[in-house]
Amino acid sequence: MARYSFRLPDIGEGIAEAEIVAWHVKIGERVEEDAQLADMMTDKATVEMESPVSGIVVELAGEVGDLIPIGSTLAVIETDGAEEDGGDVEAPPADTPVEREIVAETPGAEEISVAEVAAPAPAAAPAPTPAPAPAPAPVAAADHSRAVLASPAVRARAKDLGVDLGQVQAEGDRIRHSDLDAFLRYSGGQGYHAPGASRARADEPIKVIGMRRKIAENMAASKRAIPHFTYVEEMDVTALEDMRADLNANRGGRPKLTMLPFLIVAICRTIPQFPMINARYDDEGGVVTRYGAVHLGMATQTDAGLMVPVIRDAQDKNVWQLASEITRLAEAARTGKAKVEELTGGTLTVTSLGPLGGIATTPVINRPEVAIIGPNKIVERPVFDGDEIRRAKLMNLSISCDHRVVDGWDAASYVQALKKLIETPVLLFAD
Questions:
Q1: In angstroms, rounded to a whole number, what is the distance separating the alpha carbons of residues 185 and 179?
Q2: Suppose 362 and one of 142, 211, 230, 279 were both cysteines; which one would form an S-S bond, judging by CB atoms 3.0 to 4.6 Å apart?
Q3: Buried b (16+ CB within 10 A) or exposed e, 209-245
C-alpha cells in the first residue's frame, strides 16, 4: 500500500490560502479518481477539488471553515500499490493547472475532524447480564379534583393559558400569579403548551463559513475603511412606467423589461459628467482610478449568500440587451454557475430589493468601489402638478458614496442628473 498526499494547488493569482466550505468524503471512505474531495473558496469563487487517485481516505486537513495554505496537504489517500520510500507520494506541484468551476455552497456539509480515526474501535468485552430489576411500585395519578383556591384574576389567566390549576403547586394557602408563573417556567418543558402560543426553539450555533464569511469580512472592511454617506432623492417614474408597459406589450420574443435596465441606461449616460462616481480607490497606493467603461455590479441574493455578478461594458448595451444580461447573470449566480470573471472587476454597483423595496436604503459600498446605487420601491401617491392634483408613481433612489473620493455636492448633482433622465424617459433613447 502507498500513501498519496494531495496538496492544495495554486487556484488563483495572488491567493495564499483557501477556505474549506464542504467535504465530500470522510476518513475511512473510499474515493475514486476524479471524484470530488472538497469545495474550497477563495474570495467569492468556490473551486471543486477532485481526487487524482483512487483509494481510502486516511487523513483530512481540517474542518469546514478552516483556512488551508496553498501547497499544504489537503488529504492523504491510501492507494493500491507498492509502498515507496516511506510510503508517501507527493501530489503535483502547487502551480499545476486545475480545472475551475464556480459552484454553490453545499448546505449541511458534515464537519470532519483531523483527529477522527479510520480504524474501527476494538470490541468491548460483553458486560455481565444484570439481574432483573424489581417492577416499580405503581404511582398514584394526580388528583385534579381537589379544591383549588385562587382569585378570579388568576383563574381567568389560567383559563386563557389553558392551564389546569389542579396541577399548580401553591406556595401558600392559595394559588397566586407567582405560582402560575413558576409552573409556566418549570413545567413548559414537560409537555405543557398553551393554546395559540409558540414553543421556544433551542439555541442554534451556526459556524460562519464560506460565502457568509466572505460577505462578513468584506462588509466589515468596507465600513471600517470607508467614510460612507448616503443621499436619497424622490423621483416621479409615472412616465417611465407607462413607457415600460408599452414596450413590454410589444416586445415579441424579447425579454420582459423591469425598471433596472432603464436605470442602468440612465446611470451610464450620466457617468461621463461625473467620472468620480465610476471609480475605485486604492487605499495602500493612495490612487483613485476613474474608469471610462462602466462594469456594473448587480447585487444578487442567492442561497449561498449575496453575490455581485458584473455586467461588462454596460454603457454599450440597450435596454433589451441589458434585460437579457441581467437575467443570465442572476440565474448563473443563483445556480452557482457564474464564472470567476463574471464575479470580479466591477466599477460601480446597483443593489435593489425588488418588490420588497423599502422607503429608503443606506447600502454599504462594495469596496474598493466608491459608490453604490439603490432604487427603492415604487408607490402611488397624489402629487401637486401646478394647481392640479394627480396620481403619480414615485420611487426613492439612494446612493452611498466614499467621502474620501466623492463630495456631497457631487453625489447630489449626479442623482439630480439621473432624476432628469428618469422623469423624462424619452431622453434615455435620444442621441
A1: 10
A2: 230
A3: bbbbbbbeebeeebeeebeeebbbbbbbbbebbebbe
| Total residues belonging to the chain | 431
Distance CA 401, CA 411 (A): 7
Contact 373, 414 (CB under 8 A): no
CA distance 354 to 352: 5
Closest CA to 104 of 307, 311, 298, 341: 307
Report the C-alpha gap between 57 and 37 in whole angstroms.
10
Q: Supply the residues annotated as catalytic.
A: 403, 407
Cα distance between residue 150 and residue 287, in whole Å: 77
Grid cell 460577505 is found at 215
- DSSP of 404-427, one letter per residue? TT--HHHHHHHHHHHHHHHHSGGG
Choose among 112, 21, 11: nearest CA to 71: 11
- Strands 30-31 and 279-282 come out as unpaired
Map 259-316 to HEC letters: HHHHHHHHHHHHHHHCCCCCEEEECCCCEEEECCCCCEEECEEECCEEECCEECCHHH
Please state whether beta strands 348-350 and 296-298 pair in parallel, antiparallel, or not at all (unpaired). Answer: parallel
Cell of 302: 442567492
Which residues, 6+ apart, have CB-to-CB distance to 288 below 8 Å? 276, 279, 280, 281, 282, 370, 405
- How high is the pLDDT of residue 183? 85
User: Using CA atoms, how far apart are residues 356 and 375, in angstroms rounded to an integer?
Assistant: 11
Q: Are 377 and 358 in contact (CB under 8 A)?
A: yes
Q: How many CB atoms lie within 10 A of CB 423?
A: 14
Strands 88-90 and 2-7: what pairing? parallel
Q: Residue 68: how many CB atoms within 10 A of its CB?
A: 18
CB 168 within 8 A of CB 183: yes
Q: Is 232 left (phi over 0), alpha (psi -120 to 50) or beta?
A: beta
Element (H, E) at 230: strand 228-236
Q: What's the pLDDT tens digit per position in 29-67?
A: 999 988 889 988 876 577 888 899 999 999 998 888 888
